[in-house]
Amino acid sequence: MNKSTLTTVPKVRLAANHWLMDCLYYFTKPYGQHIINHVVKTCSEAYEDYVSSHPGFNGHVHFIGFSLGGIIAYDIASMQWSEHEDGLPPWAKGDVSNTPDITVPPLGFKIKSIFTCGSPIAAGLICRGLDYLQFRPPPRTRIHNIFHPFDPLGYRLEPMVHPNYDTVEPVLVDRTKRLPRIPNLGIKSSIATAKPYIQSFWQSFFTVKAESVVTYSDHSLKRKEEELDDDGVRKKRRKMIHQDNTMMIPKDGILGTDGNMYPRLDYVLSENMIDAYASEWIVALKSHFRYWANRDVSHHIVKTLLDYQ
Asked: Where are the domains of the chain?
């Protein structure tokens, strides 16, 4: 691959070879099977090493996958059905085409939950002609499909459970406390001293602006109103709103087209103030590559793990 890569824009091509090509490799049978085998082997070895160091361990095992890693974790977990504990897998009564063209070795442990961050699982299923209700992890494995609202690779899973749930808002991940108290470095007193001057400035500014508006013609006023409206649309283009026809359902489960109840799958992060003003490209890149540094994601995972105790 490196010999076939052009030498122009080397940084962009390096990123493409490291990130984009991984997806093409995984969805190609020989390379995809090799990736699955390697991931399963690595996970099994890590589990065995941990158990050997902690002989009395009887806790849960969880997967965390980012981007393509979430799809891989989903595929591995979906092939871990046990007829004795979970019953027949949903694809057993259907066609063989309801499963991907890969063979997943059995794991030596059970997966309690999967946390995926910015993983296009739904897109991966659709592109391979698969359906969530036919190819999914066993009920003992809980999926947390976490995504930022502006992540271009974030896709929802719940509409695949039932088409009507495309109007249902995903579960909003709780926000952690952001702003610590300002230390006593003289900053607060300086701001308090300058506050009257700032208020006086803004009052005089708005007074002058209001007086100048009177001299505008009706045509100028209309044009300025249109400009302000356009500017407001641009700034609020990313703001998530709740439609009147939004369905309200409990946080603990949704009803599938097969008549079974499924736990909530989609979890959305809160947007930041800068997301409403920055360029779409910058926001998209930042949203996809900031999961590991997002405190809300860490808080959600830790809170979920503690709930299992």
From this structure: 58-178+247-307
| CB neighbour burial string for 99-108, b if at least 16 within 10 angstroms, e if fewer | bbeeebeebe
Any idea which residue has 């004795």 for tokens? 84
d(CA 264, CA 181): 35
β-pairing, 142-147 vs 266-268, is parallel
CA-to-CA distance for 130 and 78, rounded, in angstroms? 12
Q: Give the global pTM.
A: 0.73
Give the mean model confidence (pLDDT) for residues 240-250: 44
Counting every residue written for the chain, the total comes to 309
> E strands of the chain, at which residues?
61-66, 111-117, 142-147, 171-172, 254-255, 261-262, 266-268
The DSSP 8-state label assigned to residue 186 in this structure reads S
**For the segment 33-74, what is each residue's pLDDT rounded down to a tens digit?**
999 999 999 999 999 999 999 998 989 999 999 999 999 999
